[in-house]
Prior knowledge:
Blueprint: H1 3-28, H2 38-42
Amino acid sequence: MNTSALVLMISTWAIVICFAVYFFIKILTAKKHDEPDSYVENDDESI
Length: 47
């Protein structure tokens, strides 16, 4: 494998891993929305 190919492969892996870590942290640290349960409104009372 050429040196340039190795550099390109490692830099591509680094970019993909950085994006994955960034969005994973963004999801884990997101605020939870206090929304009512939507399934309660869809329940049939006659059952």
